[in-house]
Amino acid sequence: MRVISVVGARPQFVKLAPIARAMAGHAEHLVVHTGQHYDERMSDVFFQDLGIAQPDVNLAVGSGKHGAQTGAMLAGLEPVFEQSRPDWVLVYGDTNSTIAAALAAVKLHIPVAHLEAGLRSFNRRMPEEHNRVLTDHAADLLLAPTDVAMRHLAHEGLADRSVLVGDVMTDVLHEVRDRVLASGTPLPEGVERGRYRVATLHRPDNTDDPVRLAAILDQLASLDLPVLLAVHPRLRSLAASHGLELERGAIRPIEPLPYPELVAAVMGSAGVVTDSGGLQKEAFLLRVLCTTVRPETEWVETVELGWNQLVSERLDQLAAAVQRPTPAETDAAPYGDGTAAAAVVETLVERRR
Length: 353
Ligand code: UD1
What we know:
The protein is of the alpha/beta class. The strands form two sheets. It has a seven-stranded parallel β-sheet with strand order 3-2-1-4-5-6-7, with helices on both faces. The protein has 15 helices and 13 strands. The protein has two domains: 2-167 and 336-350, Rossmann fold; 175-322, Rossmann fold, CATH 3.40.50.2000. Helix 1 (10-23) packs across helix 15, helix 3 crosses helix 4 (96-107) and helix 7 (168-183) crosses helix 11 (259-267). Helices cover 43% and strands 14% of the residues. The structure holds uridine-diphosphate-N-acetylglucosamine (UD1). Uridine-diphosphate-N-acetylglucosamine binds at residues 9-11, 36-39, 42, 63, 94-96, 127-128, 202, 233-234, 237. Uridine-diphosphate-N-acetylglucosamine is lined by residues 9-11, 36-39, 42, 63, 94-96, 127-128, 202, 233-234, 237.
């Protein structure tokens, strides 16, 4: 069996790590990097730290408006797929790299498998929502991480193409958490265990409007503990163009963190403030309190179990939400037990045409 994984953005490199390991001995596995993320700290360090081989192909598409970026990926992927004729193209969800690869492959009648299938925010302002809905409907095999995702797929008439495999993010997080505990990966400089918080912001709805971004930064600045704000390049460039200073009050801007350092930082923190999907789940899996600056989340289990709170309209209440008490412990495991990558490979083998 030959499988081509198409990745392009930071969270996809994380998910690729357990998949690449699980493929060994079962498939010839080729990795195509679209080049959507290209900064060393957004891309290369993930391959190094997570022990992933260099991509077989890098399309180096880079940044651009949605149409131009997605179009360049389509044009770049088509000849790669035509030449290699894999049994599966595996796409990793959410991003322009995912929709481009799914579309390029189905047009060539190459089967497409969608990891993270069935996620829905029901917010059609998000580019990820268009990408994931369209990819689910184009793909041949829908690899769902949760029961909730399976239900969404069934509602859209896609039950017969859907398989519950669990969440590969759990696989990689468990592994890195154990490594961090064993090696004593240090906390970021200048903070004391349990006496700081970790924040990230990159969603266009939060970064692109200067008034909204300023209101979020003001709330973070007013918190009772230092906030390590790991700055995504989108945030850095938009804050600069809005004339907003990131370093203020409690906020300590830092560069984006490599994955093991991020995990160590979250584990040692008093809480997380984010608009990232992955980080909401990582905080939950590490049982760290999370506050999400979005009107809705795909990871509804984190909210239902009390470990995540959404704040969007009433930004004046963000600081109070962040400083809320920790909820009751839970041993719920809605994101699987850390064996999702093996289930993915098994399903690809079984369903190969
Ligand atoms: C993308 C995904 C989003 C995912 C996120 C993870 C889409 C539509 N969005 O959003 O689902 O949660 O990745 O981070 O695919 N930039 C750099 N260097 C880089 C990468 C980006 O400077 O290595 C800058 C560029 O100015 C670029 C901007 O960041 O225009 C945004 O990057 P882009 O990949 O378009 O979207 P993200 O916001 O990262």
